[in-house]
Amino acid sequence: MGSLPHYLSSSSDSKIDETTLLDLFKSQQSHLNFFFQNLSLPQTLAFTRTLLSSSGTIFFSGVGKSGFVANKISQTLVSLSIRSAFLSPVDALHGDIGILSSSDVVVLFSKSGNTDELLRLVPCVRAKGAYLISLTSIQGNALAALCDMNVHLPLERELCPFDLAPVTSTAIQMVFGDTIAIALMAARNLTKEEYAANHPAGRIGKSLIFKVKDVMKKQEELPVCREGDLIMDQLVELTSKGCGCLLVIDDEYHLIGTFTDGDLRRTLKASGEGIFKLTVGEMCNRKPRTISPDAMAVDAMKKMEAPPSPVQFLPVIDNQNIVIGIVTLHGLVSAGL
C-alpha cells in the first residue's frame, strides 16, 4: 500500500483548518470589494465603447498569468461572435505581428505595467497603426504612458502573504474582462439562438439548434405495420427496431395509431391465448402523441415527459398525417439533450 503525500498526512492537519480557510476567503473578498469600490466607471465605459466600435479584431496580450487571463477573455469574446484573438508578445516579435492591421485594437494585460515583453511590443503595434489599450494595476507605469488608453484596475494587495503571487490581481483581471464581455454581448443584442450556434457541441447549443428531423429515425429504421396484421406476426418488428413500439399505418403511410411493448404485455395478460387471433389494429392506441419534424428536439423531450404519463417515443408526421420518422427518448439522450 502506498502512503499519503506529505501535504495530506495527519501531521499537517494542525497547519490548516476551517477558520484559516474562511479567513483567506474573507480577505480575498475584501480585496475584490476594494477593486469594485475604486474602479473608474468613466474609464471602463470608454474602454467598452472602444471595443464595441472596433471594426477590426480585438487582440489581447499578456505575459505569464496575465497572459492566461488575456487568452481566456479573448476566447469568451469569440464565443459571443466578437472577432478576437490572443497575441503572444513573444511570438508577435517573431512574425505574428503581421496579423495586425490599422483597424484592430490591442489590449495589454499587465499588473505592473512594466513588463519588458509588452513594452517591446508597443512600438511594433504602433507601426501597424492598431489602437493600444493597457489594463494595469500600478499607478504611473511605463505601459500606461505609451498606450492610447489605460484602464486602472485597482489592487489593494495580493492575497499572498508576501504580496507577490498574482492571485488577486488575476482574479480582478478576469472579473473585469468577463464583465466587459457580457456588456458587449448585451450592446450587440446577441440572441440566445446566435449564442447557441457558437456552442453546437454543448447541451445549450443542441437544445436550441437541433430539430426533431435531426435526431429522428426514418425510412427502413421505422417499426411499421398495418392494422390488419396479427400481433404475434409483428413481434420481430416490435422488438428489432429498438423503439419499443409499432407505428400502425395504412397503405399511404398515414398514421393510424401505435402499439407498444407495454400494450403487448397488457393484451397478453387480458387475452391469454386469444392474443394469437388479435390484430394490431384492434389493440393499438389511435390517439398517440405526435410531433412535427420541424419542432425543436428539446420540445419533443418535453412532450414525452408531459402528463398524464410519460412516453418513450413520438411518431413524427407531416401536415398530412404521413409518418416520416420516429423520435425516441433514448435517441434524444444519446444526442446530448
UniProtKB/TrEMBL annotation:
Site (Catalytically relevant) found at K65, E117, E158, H199
Q: Its domain of life?
A: Eukaryota
Domain SIS stretches: 48-190
PROSITE patterns noted in UniProt:
CBS, SIS
Q: Which UniProt keywords apply?
A: CBS domain, Repeat
Ranges for domain CBS come to 216-278, 284-337
Q: Which InterPro entries match?
A: CBS_dom, CBS_dom_sf, KdsD/KpsF-type, SIS_dom, SIS_dom_sf, SIS_Kpsf
Gene Ontology BP term (one):
carbohydrate metabolic process
Instruction: Quote any Pfam family the record assigns.
Output: SIS
Sequence intervals crossing the membrane: none
Q: Which GO MF terms are attached to this record?
A: carbohydrate derivative binding; isomerase activity
NCBIfam families named among the record's database cross-references: kpsF
Q: Which family does it belong to?
A: Belongs to the SIS family. GutQ/KpsF subfamily.
Full protein name: Arabinose 5-phosphate isomerase
From which organism does this entry originate?
Answer: Quercus lobata
